[in-house]
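Give me C-alpha cells for this 289-residue protein.
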Amino acid sequence: MKRLLLKTIGFLSLVLVCVLLIVIFIPHPFDYFKEQSIKDTMLDNTSREQSIVLLGGSNVIYGFDSEKIEDSLHIHTINDGFHAGLGMKFILENCSTRLKTGDILVLCPEYEHFFGKGYRGEPLGLGMTVLNDLNYIKFLNIKQLWIVLKTIPYYIKTMIPYYKFWEDDLNLSCFNSKGDIILNENNTHNNAEPAQKMNNTELNKQFCGSFFQKLQDLENRGVKVVIYPPSYMQSCYIQNEDAINDIRNIFEKANQTPICDWSECAYDDSLFYDTRYHLNREGAMENTL
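Here you go.
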C-alpha cells in the first residue's frame, strides 16, 4: 500500500512538473492575453510623463478614444483597461504599484466587481493573463491562485493549433498604441446580449472597504482618483437599477462620488457592440466626449 501511494505521488509530481514546464517555456499561441503586460510596460516606463490612466474591465478598452482625450486635454493618456475577469482586486493592485505622483487615475469599475466574489476574477480573465505572465503571481492571494490553477487544463487545451476562443479574431493587433481596442470607424455591429438582471446583487462590504482604502492610499501618494461610471446598456441599467443604487450609495458614503451620475453612462442599446459593457465606435465617441 505504501509503495502504491509513493508511486502515485511520484506520478502526480511528474505530471505537475511537466505542466509547469509547458506553462513556463512554451508560449501560448493566442497572444490576446499578453496585452496586459504591454500596458504595464507603458506604465512602468520611467521616462513617461504624468498621465491620465483609464482603468477598468473591457468596458474601458471599448469605451474610450484615448488619443482624443490626450489631444483635447494635452495630457499623456494610457488605456490600462483590459478584462473584467481579472477581478477588481487584481486590476487595482496591479495598476496602483505602477502609478506615480501627479498621475490621474480614471477608474471605471464594472458593477459586478462589487457583488459577491466578483472582485476575485475568473479563469478566462485572471487565469489566462497570469499564465501568460507568471510575474503577476505576486499580486495574488490563495483564492486567486486557486482560480489560476483551475485554468491550467484550459490553458493547455487552447494551445492546440487553430483552437478558437471566440467568434471575433481578437489578438494583440486589435489594440492601438494607447491601449484602446480598435473598432472600424464605420462599425455599426450590434449583437449585444438581451437585457437581464444580475445573478448576484449582494454587496461585498469587506471588499468595498479595502477598495476605498486603496483609493485613499493613492490620493495620499499624490495620485488624483476620478470615478467615471461604466458604459452600460440602458435596458440593463433599468432592470438593475436597484442594485446600481446600492453601489451609488456605498460610493457616496465613502466620499467617492463619480464625476457624473451613474445613469448618465447608461447609453441607448444601439450603441453597444456585443455585450452590455462594450460600446461600438459611435458609442465610444459619445462616452469620450
